[in-house]
Amino acid sequence: MRRSDVLLSALLLAGAGRSLAAWPEIAMPDGARIESIGEQVRLNGVPMRMHRVLSSQSPKELIGFYRDALGSRRAEQPLPDGLVLAQERGDYFVTVRIKALSSGSTEVLVSASDMVEAKRSATRPPDMNFPADSLVLSDMESVDSAKHSRQLVVRNGHSVAANVRHLLQSLEARGYHPDAIPGKHTGTEYVQFFKGEQREALLTLTRKDSLTQIVLTTIFNP
């Protein structure tokens, strides 16, 4: 690892340590099932804490609960399938998305984002060599019991074949090799699993309207 990479990692870990010590507490309704989404999560480089809440209470009841929990200094945004509540808390930004499920229960996604780290991560590279003129649409990382997962969603104007040639070299340089089971390879779609020592990946490309969308999911399990 280059010295600059080591220093960058140290800075990120230092920032994450500061955040973990001061995450805001967000109330949870009684009787709900709480699921943590990753021990450590980064979305587009921003450290986050995310929880999924499943409750038998109605969306109306839970909207009232979280309005009370957040207090009057909050923002609200109606959605076609529910409502989002948002609030700044010091160095953090809290969002609560509430929607009804077809099963009759209600789902709440609660997240807190570190806004200080968001500013530091604004120019953070994707840590993957994509073709020129590629645009990163989403960068999601999660760490669970030392297993590190990352999903990158990228778009560019290159053909599927040109992207595949480039990405195969990039993945091979990182120790990923195509799985023995063949994937789906056409002029407009490419799906392939990769394996390596303590790692695996899934690469999906689709071509539509002169644009290629890339979804790369990598998992490292030491």
Round the Cα radius of gyration to an integer and report it: 20 Å
Determine the CATH topology of the largest domain: TATA-Binding Protein
Give a quick account of the main beta sheet: strands, pairing sense, barrel closure: 14 strands, antiparallel
CATH architecture name of the largest domain: 2-Layer Sandwich
Overall pLDDT level: 85
Explained architecture:
The structure is a single chain. With 222 residues, the chain is an alpha+beta fold. It has two domains: 3-37 and 47-115, TATA-Binding Protein (2-Layer Sandwich); 135-220, no CATH class. It is 23% helix and 45% strand. The chain contains four helices and 14 strands. The chain has helices at residues 3-20, 59-70, 115-120, 160-173, and strands spanning 33-36, 40-43, 46-55, 75-79, 82-89, 92-100, 106-114, 135-144, 147-156, 177-178, 184-185, 189-196, 199-208, 211-220. Strands 1, 2, 3, 4, 5, 6, 7, 8, 9, 10, 11, 12, 13 and 14 form a 14-stranded antiparallel β-sheet that branches. The model is unreliable at 1-21 (pLDDT under 50).
Topology diagram in text:
Elements: H1 3-20, E1 33-36, E2 40-43, E3 46-55, H2 59-70, E4 75-79, E5 82-89, E6 92-100, E7 106-114, H3 115-120, E8 135-144, E9 147-156, H4 160-173, E10 177-178, E11 184-185, E12 189-196, E13 199-208, E14 211-220
Antiparallel strand pairs: 1-3, 2-3, 2-8, 3-7, 4-5, 5-6, 6-7, 8-9, 9-14, 10-12, 11-12, 12-13, 13-14
